[in-house]
Structures are given as C-alpha cells and as structure tokens.
Write a structure and sequence with these properties.
Number of helices: 15
Structural class: alpha+beta
Distance between the termini: 38 Å
Oligomer: single chain
Helix content: 25-40%
Shape: globular
Number of strands: 14
Largest sheet: 5 strands, antiparallel
Order of helices and strands: HHEHHEEHHHHHEEHHHHEEEHEEEEEHE
Strand order of the largest sheet: 1-3-2-4-5
C-alpha cells in the first residue's frame, strides 16, 4: 500500500544494509554475544526443507560456529523441525515450536481447503485424534500414518490425508533426522509429546510482528504476510504504529521498523557470504529487490529447487555447490582417508580481483568449518544445473 504521508525514504541499498545487519550478515556474531539457540530464536527459525541448510545458515552468521552446536540442541530437544511459516519446515526453538505453530494454524487451515475434494467425508477432528494417538504411541513415518488413515477413509486421497494430518497436528520430525552427519527417514510425533509440555494458546500476533521486524525489517505489511503466510495483518500494524518508526521505499510503499533497530549507513561494507538453499533472507519479503536483481531471480531456482546463493556486497551474485567424495577404506597398514571436498562458485557477473579474493577466503572458511575432508579446493566456474 502506498503511503499517504511523506515518510523518510530508505533506498534499496539502505534497506539491504539494515536487514543484513539484523540478519547477522554484516559481521558474524561472536559466541560471547549469541549462541546457536539464541540465533535460531532471533531469526525466528531457519528454513529446513533439507537437513543441512540450517547448519550453513548459522555458519554464515555466527563466529566460531561448528555443526555440533546445532546438532547438540536437536539431540537435547531444545530445537526441532516442524511446519510453520509458509507451510514449510523450519528449525525452531522448543518455545517457538509451541507458540508460533498455533499462531500460523489459520494458514494451515486455509491450506487444507486446497485438498477438500480428496478429503470429502473425512472428519478432521477424528483424523486428528487418530493421528495423535498413533504418533504419540511411537514416532511414525508418513507412510505408516497414511496406511492407517486409509483404512478409516478408504475413499480418501492418500496424499490429502497426509497433508491433513500435518496441517491439523503440529508434527515434529524426531531425531536422528536433522542431526549433522546422521541419516534417518522422517518420523513424526507431536510437538507436545516431543517436548513434554502443552502448546501455548494462540498468541496475539503483535509480539511476532515485532520479532519479524527485529530480524527482517524495515518491512511492509505485505512483507510480513509473505514471511508468515498470515493474512489481514494491516490492523495489527496499525495497532502497533505508535510504537514503530515509519519509512517508505523508493516506490512509496510504507515500511515499518523498530525505532531503535540498526539502520547502518548504505555504504557499510558487506562481506561475501555463502547462504544455503531457501535461506529466509531471500524468502521473507514480498519485494526482494533489496537483495536480488530481477534478472538474477530465475537463475537461483530450477523448477521448485533453490540453489545455494553467493552474496557479494550484500546482493545475490552467484550460486555455489559443495561436493564431497566418499571416505575411502583404509589401505593395509594405513589410515582411512577423509576424502576431498570441492566448492564450486558460479558467479553471475564478473567479480573484481578484490571480490574474488574475499569470496575465496570466505569459501575456505566454510570448507574448514563444514567439511571433514582432509583436502579441499575452491573452483570458480560453472556446474551442471
């Protein structure tokens, strides 16, 4: 919505630096200031469709981070993976699992309407009760859950029944799924059962709006709705308006922010960062032009699959891929090789010599932190998409 009054204007570069700062991407937060759990909470969760992205997201943001920092939190049930914003899997703290999921439940209810034909005659209350009993008896795969639901509703669409169970209940993916260096199929139980306490009542959205602005602002009402999947948030922002700073972008769109939130100078340096696929930095605004040029948007996706992206000077400037060889067996009388790792960087445009050196330095840091390979290399070029 265009602003009806004249508010201070924030250009794209100023918006870029402001959001990068609160995303911990202008400088890594030291461990003395923010631990892995604190970062997960500050960022209001991490995209987690795949296992590794949350680890790479924190490696880009926290100084001294090692994968075991997050893996230990998952093993101790201080954080977990479940569907929240935008109907996608996120890694959240236990507290947020039990509060954010009720807040976005309305979006899950809307999602169910897309599958009404496959759920004809299905009592969703009974479906929820059957599913809860099953997954709280022991964690179940979605296949196991679907098989039981099909016995109850043999005419139901199998996929729709699966979606309904996920929408009706806050289903957590239990470990070892999500642990660093471990494998395991997706098995599910309820958040309440996993954490040993009840979900909170549906909270007012005001607090979540403030948290969103602290992590992603300055932002418009539409931005917040894009991030959360919630609708009709204008009245919440209006209620909060007396507590907020109000700006506008170069197109006149009204932007809200916390009065004391950092808004660095537009010329503040932004070092290169390797962000994982689906990083929330790039998915949490309706207008993403502060981070990515329009001509590059299509190059960060292939179908429904997102590439990991390279940020240079605060903007999407390429994609990257980390490939690791399998560990070889020990030779007679020797030790097992840890294999090798190759980080391929595909820049969209020409990097200056200084930028290329900075990207290589950051790549070396990522390889050292995130790969157990004994040898690794960085290559600038292209990879098969």
């Amino acid at each position: 919505m265009a602003s009806k009054t004249t508010n201070p204007v924030l250009g794209n570069r100023a918006l870029n630096r402001a959001t990068l700062d609160r995303q911990l991407l202008l400088r890594r937060a030291p461990k003395s200031a923010m631990c892995a759990k604190g970062a997960v909470e500050h960022l209001v969760g991490l995209q987690a469709q795949n296992v590794k992205p949350p680890y790479f997201a924190l490696a880009a943001r926290l100084d001294g981070f090692v994968p075991e920092d997050l893996s230990a939190l998952m093993a101790s049930r201080e954080v977990a993976r479940l569907v929240t914003m935008r109907s996608t899997i996120h890694t959240h703290s236990a507290d947020d699992c039990l509060t954010l999921r009720p807040l976005v439940q309305a979006a899950r209810d809307r999602e169910l309407k897309q599958f009404r034909n496959g759920l004809a005659g299905v009592d969703l209350g009974r479906l929820g009760a059957i599913s809860r009993e099953l997954v709280e008896e022991q964690p179940r795969t979605m296949k196991e859950l679907r098989e039981v639901l099909l016995k109850e509703w043999p005419d139901g669409d199998p996929f729709a029944l699966s979606v309904a169970a996920r929408c009706v209940l806050p289903l957590v993916q239990v470990t070892p799924r999500g642990l660093w260096g471990r494998s395991g199929q997706v098995t599910l139980t309820t958040a309440e059962h996993w954490f040993g306490r009840e979900s909170e009542p549906v909270p007012a959205p005001d607090g979540t709006v403030l948290r969103y602005l602290a992590a992603f602002g300055p932002a418009s009402v539409k931005d917040m709705q894009t991030w959360s999947g919630l609708t009709r948030m204008r009245e919440v922002f209006e209620r909060l308006r007396p507590r907020l700073a109000v700006f506008q972008d170069e197109q006149g769109v009204e932007l809200f922010d916390l009065p004391d939130a950092p808004r660095p100078d537009a010329d503040t340096p932004a070092p290169p960062r390797f962000l994982p696929e689906y990083d929330n930095l790039l998915l949490s605004h309706a207008d993403r032009s502060r981070f990515v040029a329009e001509e590059y948007t299509s190059r960060t996706w292939k179908g429904n699959q997102s590439f990991s992206v390279l940020m240079v000077d605060g903007r999407v400037s390429g994609i990257w891929r980390l490939e690791e060889s399998k560990r070889s067996k020990a030779s007679q009388g020797g030790k097992a090789s840890q294999g090798s790792a190759l980080l391929t960087v595909q820049a969209f445009g020409k990097l200056t010599r200084t930028q290329r050196e900075a990207v290589a330095e950051e790549g070396e840091r990522i390889l050292t932190t995130m790969s157990s390979a004994t040898t690794h290399d960085i290559r600038f070029g292209t990879f098969s998409e």
